[in-house]
Write a structure and sequence with these properties.
Helix content: 25-40%
Strand content: 15-25%
CATH class: Alpha Beta
Structural class: alpha/beta
Largest sheet: 6 strands, mixed
Shape: globular
Radius of gyration: 19 Å
CATH topology: Transcription Regulator spoIIAA
Number of domains: 1
Number of strands: 14
Number of helices: 11
CATH architecture: 2-Layer Sandwich
Order of helices and strands: HEHHEHHEEHHHHEEHEHEEEEEEE
Strand order of the largest sheet: 5-6-7-8-10-9
CATH superfamily: GpdQ, beta-strand dimerisation domain
Length: 313
């Protein structure tokens, strides 16, 4: 709530172009958590119109917070339900603004909401009644919508490509694995190819590489970056000067590059903090450079002070 209020106050005096939420809108993809998320964002409709959501591993792949050993089978109805909740939430926020890539033509055609319209009755039926048959009828719908594309407003403007980087994992220990599929890479190249003079934000949840910093915890060293990060960086290579990659997941405040590809890792303003603890986020300014370059200017760090809580007495 504090974060959204602060962003809204900034937007009122210095309008923002995008508010990127790089995944993990929820802790475990629960309906109650999505309701809480929308309770927060719907208080600021002006920001919702500029917000871009993408799926995080907590939204999709957390099997059971109370039972780390629980296995989620590939045909799990619970996993499908988390996918449909996430996709429905994304559509509610940006469904009329982003476009998806047609499987047959490889071209940007329908908006996300238009693409989902034939599937809405099945999604609602599954959400209300569950069942393996209803779940199987929705197979592939989630994956087919990525990457979502927010097209540039001019031929040399700024577009946003929104990816799903969550691997299809079925066990609690592997829920954080990241992967960009070959099909997503193909669709991304096709979408960018429709706007050869545009600059691009490539938005995904997982980080592309492990960052050069000392860590101690085993969980910080294993299985957090994209499994095929090297391949994806090579895929982005030809676009390097004209793109910036933005991601979350790691909750590390880091800006750098891998070759020509500029990378921004977003800290989480809410993860691991309490109401009385200070937190922060960044406002990034991008500028068009010569020869199709996209320049990253010095970011503005926005501090949010903690709220004193009354101790029980």
């Amino acid at each position: 709530m504090r974060v959204m209020a602060r962003i809204a106050a900034i937007h009122a005096t210095h309008p923002l172009d995008f508010v990127l939420v790089s995944g993990d809108m929820t802790d475990a993809g629960l309906a109650t958590e999505w309701a809480e998320f929308f309770d927060a964002v719907e208080q600021h409709p002006g920001l919702v119109a500029r917000t871009i959501l993408l799926p995080g591993n907590h939204d999709l792949n957390i099997v059971d917070r109370a039972n780390p050993a629980r296995l989620d089978l590939p045909f799990s109805t619970g996993k499908r339900l988390r996918q449909m909740r996430t996709l429905s939430a994304i559509a509610a926020v940006q469904g009329d603004r982003v476009r998806v890539i047609a499987r047959n033509s490889g071209r940007l055609t329908q908006t996300l909401n238009e693409a989902l319209a034939p599937h809405r009755p099945g999604i609602v039926d599954f959400a209300n009644n569950g069942g393996l048959r209803r779940s199987l009828e929705l197979e592939g719908i989630f994956e087919d919508q990525f990457p979502m594309i927010l097209p540039p407003d001019s031929e040399d403007g700024l577009g946003v490509a929104i990816l799903n980087s969550n691997a299809q994992t079925h066990f609690s220990f592997t829920n954080a694995l990241g992967l960009v599929s070959i099909e997503q890479g193909r669709r991304l190249a096709a979408a960018v190819g429709e706007y050869p003079k545009a600059r691009w934000i490539i938005a995904l949840h997982h980080h592309l590489i492990e960052y050069p910093m000392p860590v101690v915890a085993f969980s910080e060293r294993v299985g957090t970056a994209l499994v095929n990060g090297s391949w994806f960086i090579r895929k982005l290579g030809p676009l390097g000067a004209g793109i910036v990659v933005m991601h979350g997941h790691r909750h590390i405040d880091w800006i750098g590059a891998c070759g020509a590809v500029k990378i921004i890792s977003a800290p989480s303003p809410v993860m691991g903090t309490t109401d009385d603890a200070p937190t922060h986020f960044h406002i990034h300014t991008l500028a068009a450079g010569p020869d199709g370059q996209l320049r990253l200017l010095v970011p503005e760090r926005v501090e949010i002070t903690g709220v004193a809580t009354q101790s029980a007495g």
